[in-house]
Amino acid sequence: MKISDSLFNKSIVHDSGAKHVSGLAKYTDDISEPLNTLYGAIGWSKKAHAKLKKIDLKDVKKSEGVLSVITYLDIPGRNDVGPVFDGDPIFPKDKVEYYGQPLFAVAATSMELARKAVLKAKVVYQDLKPIVTIDEALKKNSLLFKPRIIKKGNPNQKIKKSKNKIKGNFTTGSQEHFYLEGQVAFVIPKEDENYTVYSSTQHPSETQQIIAKMLNQKSNSIDVLVRRIGGGFGGKETNFMTSAICALLSHKTKKPIKLRLDRDDDIIITGKRHDFYSDYEVGFDDDGRIDGLKLKLASRCGMSPDLSLAINERALLHIDNAYYLSDVEIKNYLCKTNTVSSTAFRGFGGNQGMMAIENIIDNISRYLKKDPSKIRERNFYGRKNRNITHYGMKINDNVINEIFEDLKTKSNYKKRYSEIKKFNQKNKFKKKGISITPVKFGISFTTIHLNQAGALVHVYTDGSIHMNHGGIEMGQGTHTKIAQLVANSFGLPYEKVQISSTNTSKVPNTSASAASSTTDLNGAATLNAVSKIKLNINNFIKKKYKIFSKTEPIYKDGNIYIGNRIFNFEQIIKEAYLNRISLSSSGFYSTPKINFNKKIFKGRPFYYFCYGAAVSEVTIDTFTGESVLDRVDILHDVGNAINPALERGQIEGGFVQGQGWLTMEEVVWDKLGKIKTFSPSTYKIPAINDIPKKFNVEIFKKGLNVEKVVNKAKTTGEPPLMLAMSVFFAIKDAIASTANYKKVPVINAPATPEKILLSIKKLKNIV
Amino acid sequence: MVSNTIQFIYNNQICSIENPDPNKTVLDYVRNDLKKNGTKEGCAEGGCGACTVVLGELKNSKLVYKSINSCISFLPSVNGKHLILVEDLMSKKNELHPIQEAMVKFHGSQCGFCTPGFIMSLFAMYKNFKKFDDEIIEETLSGNLCRCTGYRPIIDAAKSLNKKKDNDHFKKDQTKIINLLKKINNNEVEIFHKNKKYFSPKSLNNLKKIIKKNPHSYFLSGGTDLSLGVTKLRGEIKSIISLNSVKELKFVKKNKNYIEVGAGVSLYDFQNIIKSYYLDFYNILKRYGSVQIRNVGTVSGNIATASPIGDTLPLLLSLDAVIKIQTKNTLKIIPLDQFFISYRKTKLKKGDFVYSVKIPINKKNFFKAYKISKRFDDDISTVCASFNLLIKNNKIVKAKIAYGGMSEIPKRATSIEKILDNSIFSKELFLKAQNLIKDDFSPIDDMRASKNYRIEIAKNLLMKFFYEISKKKNIRINQ
User: Fold this and answer.
1) Which structural domains are found in chain B, ordered by start?
2) B471 touches chain A (CB under 8 A)
3) CA gap A605, A348 in Å, rounded
4) How close B160 gets to chain A, by Cα (Å)?
C-alpha cells in the first residue's frame, strides 16, 4: 500500500493560477450584470478645506442617461464609514476636509454617462486654510488625539551620561497602494430590502455592518461576497466609501448598481500610507550600543482617525525593530491634515517605526566610522538577557543573530564591503553602497479582539469537500494554503477541496484580512471545523464497527485508518450520511496567549515574531542622483512553510513594494492640499527593470514557529516589505562614500534621484 | 472602395461593425460588447498594461503581432487586423498555451489582475522573436505593472519559453488568418456615428480631400495622447482623421546624409532603424513609454503633440532635424527648432500635418542623450538632454544641444552652444558653459522634480557629456 506524501510544504500553484492566465478568473467588475443594472459615479470636492456654500446638481440631473442623484439627504442611517471612530462622512453636509472628498453620486444607464454627469456639478466653496504637512499640523497643534508618551527606564539620564550623543530628524514618505484592480462594488437589491453586495474589499464583515448602519437596517439584511480581489495591500481594509455609496444608489433606485472608480478617482478619493516624521536624540557607547533614546514620532493621518491610532501604535511597537532598548521615551503625534485619511498599508506603521530606528543606527555607525552591520549586531536583542521589549514582552523566539550571521556569510558581505570601498576610491562618478538590515515583525492584531476567525466546511455525500472561511484571497494564496491544510487533514487529494467565495452569510463576524494573520487565523478555524467533522466520522465508525482503539485515526490517501481497520473515505461518507451523521461544521479559532494593555502600553501584543534580513548593493550616479539596485540577498524565516513557493512570492513581492516605497514612489500634494500624483503617468511603482539585477532569495531552513500556529509556519504577508530597508541604507552608504565616509549623510525617504543628488551636495557643505 | 464598416478577424472569423462609435475604446468593445472580461482596465491611460491585447497584421504578406493598450485605442484602429485576446490563447481542447502554462508553473500570478496583460505582451514576444534573452524580456514587459510578484517569477516564466517550440494553434491557423486578412484589408473607412466622424484614408490624395472637407478634425496617429481626451477628460472627439492607413506615409528613406521617416512609421520600428546611426537615440526610445505605446505611437505624432517632455524632441533638435509639413497646397520644409512656438503650440495650421522628419547623419559627430526620470522605464522625463558635437583638432566646430523638461517647449541651449562653438574642447570651457543654463532655461517645480534639481542636472549632464567624450567611454549606471 502506497501512502502519499503530506501536502504540507508542497509548492502547489495558486488555486486560481490557470484562471488568472486565461482571463477566466472573475473579479467584481467581471460578474455578469442583470439587464436593469445601472452604473454609478462619484462627484468629489475640488478643494481641500472649505465650507460648502452650495451644490448645484441641476445639470447633473439633466445629464444624458442619469436616473438618480444622491446626496447626504438620501442617507437613512449613519452618514459615516469610519471603522473605529466617526469622521469619514459618506457625503459631508457643510464642510469639505480633503481634495477628493465625495460630495454626491449618480446612477446612470452606462458607466461613461455616469462619469460624464458628475463633472457637471456646480459647487460653491468658501475657502478655509488647509493644513497639508506634518510640519504645519505640529505648528498649529492640529492633532486627532492628545499626544501620547510611552516610556521605559530613564532615557534622559542615560543620554546625559552617555559617551556619545547625536540628534537628528528623519521622514519617510506616503505610498499609494496601486492595487491593479481599483475599488469596485456591485450591489443587487433582493426581497425585503435585503442586498447582496459584491465588493473588492479585505473586510466583508465590516462592509456589511457599515452598509447596514448607513441604511438603518440590521446586519442580517446585507450579504457580502468576495471571491478574490485584484490586490489589497491594506488599501481595501477600511475603504468602505465605494461599497457604501454603491449600496445607497441601489437603495434609492431599487436597481442593481455597479460602481467602479477609475484609476484617477481611486487614487484621489481613497487613503494611502502615513508619512512619518521623527526627531531623535540618542546616547551610545564607543561600540555603538544604545544607552538611551528619545524620540518624537509624528504622522500625517489626514482628515479623520480611520485606523491611524492602531497604525501609530504599531509604529511605537516596532521602534525597536530587532534592537534592545533599555531606556526609551517616545512622544507620538497624530497629525490631522486636510488630505485624504491615511490608512492601512502593508507594514501598518511598523515599517515607519523601523525605518526611524534603522536610520538612527546607521547614523551612529557613521558617527563612529564603523561598519553599520557591526553596530546593528551590537544592539540586537539577546537570547537569554536583553530580551524584554520596551513594552514588556519577553522575546522567546529570537533568531535574528543566526539569520544575520548566516546571511553575511552567504552573501559574502564582508568581502564585498571592502571591495566596494576600493571601487569608490577609484571611481568619482559612480559610487557603490552596501547595507544589511534586519527585520523583526510582530504578528497579531494589536487590537486583541480581532484575533479570531471562523470557517465552514461541508463534506457532501460523494466525498467532495466545500471549504469556506473568513479570509480574503488577494493574491497571497490563502485559499490555496488553507485548501492544502484541509486536504491534508482529510487525507484527500488537493483537488477534492472546493474553494468558495468569502461570504458573510456563511461565516459571520470576521476580521479583516490584514495584519499578516489571514492564513494563521482562518487556517486554524478551518482545521477546527474539519476536526469536528472527523470526530463525527470517527465516532460513527467506532460505534458501527465496534472498534475500541484509543489511538487517533489516520486520514491518508483517501482512506481512514482506525484501529487495525481501513475504510475508504468516500464509502464511509455515504454510510455516515445514511446513518444520519452530521458531515458539516463551523469552525472557530482565537489566538491564545496574547494580551495588551493599551493604556500603560504593556503586555504581549504579539503571538510570535517574524525574522529576516537582506543585503542590498546599489550604484548611484553622482551627476544625476539616479540609483540602480545591483544585487540583493535575502534570508527570511517562514517557519515550516505550508507552501514555500507562495511564501517566496510574498517575500519577493513585498521586497519590491518596499523598494518602491523607499526609492521612487512619491505622493505629492501641493500647498493647497491638491494631490498631484494620481495616475501611473505621475506616480511610479517599480517596473520590471527596477528589481535587483541579481536577486537571491532564500528561506531560513532552520525556521520553525515556537508557537502552535498551523503547521508551525510563520506568515509572510507584511514582514518582507521591510527587507527593502537595506536598499535605502545602501544608497545612503553610497552617498557617504562621496565624502570618503567621514560625514553623516542626511537623506529622507524616498531616495529619489533628486533627494540623492541633494544629499550629496549637502554632504559637501557639511564641515 | 469606401466603407462605413470596419472589419477585423476575431476567432478565425471576419467581424464587421457598421459605423461604430469612433470614440469607443477597444477595451470598452471587448468587455462590454464582446462580453470578454479577461482583459482588464488598470489605468485608462496606457500606463499599466493590464488592458494589453494583441493585433495580428500583415507586413509584406507575413503575420506580425503587436501588443497594444486597448484602453487608449479607438475601436476603428482594429480595422483590417486580427484581434487576439487572452481568452483566445487556450487551444480548442482547453489546454493552456505554453506561455500560460509557464506563468502558472513559475507562480507568475498572485492577485492575477495584471496577468492577462502580461500574457498578451509575452504572446507578442513569443510570436515575433525566436530567442528570448533578458533584454528582450525586459523590453517586452516594461509597460506591464505588477504590484504583487516583484516580477522575478514572470521573468523566469518568460525565459523558460526558450525551450518551447512554437506550434500553437495560431501557427496552425496561419494560412487561414493570412487569407482572411487579405480579404478585409482593402477598404477605406469613413464612419458616421451620431455626431461623430472618423476617416481612415489609404492614399495621400484621399487624405487631402478629406482634410479639405473636414478641416476641423483631429489627426490620429498612435492616439496615445489624443485618446486621453476621452478616457481621462471624458470629452468627445467629434471628427478624427487617421493617418495610419495612408500608404505614402509609411516610408523610411535612408542615404549617406540623412534618414527620412514618414508619419506612418511607428516608434518601435523607428527605434530599430535609428539604432545603427545613433545608439543613444535607440537607448532613449527603448525607455519611451512601453512596447505597447511604441507599437502605435509615431515620431511625427510626438513632434506634432509638441509636449515639453516629448522624448524624441530634444534629440531631434540637437541632431538638426527638419520636418516636412503637409499644408493644403504644398509640402513645406522647416527646421524643427523653428516649429515649436509656445506650450503645445506649433507652426501647424488647421489641416496641416507632419508628413515626415528628416534626420541628418553625421558619423563624425559625438552624439549622446540622457533621460532622467524617477523610474528608469516608462516614465516621463524630469529632464532629457541631447548633445551633438563636431570636434576637429580638439576644437569644437559646431555644438548642438537641446533639453526637454526645462521649458514650456523643447528647446536648444543657444547660449551654451554659442560659447562652445569655435572653442577648444576643455573642462574649463564646459565648466564655464554650465553656468549659462540659467540664461537659456527657467524650468518649473512640479510633481516630478523641483526647478533647482532640473537646473542642477541640466548642468551636470553637460559635464557628464564632457567626461564621456574625454574618457572615451560612457559613464552610465544602467547600461
Assistant:
1) 1-189 (3.10.20.30), 250-360 (3.30.465.10), 366-470 (3.30.390.50)
2) no
3) 15
4) 16
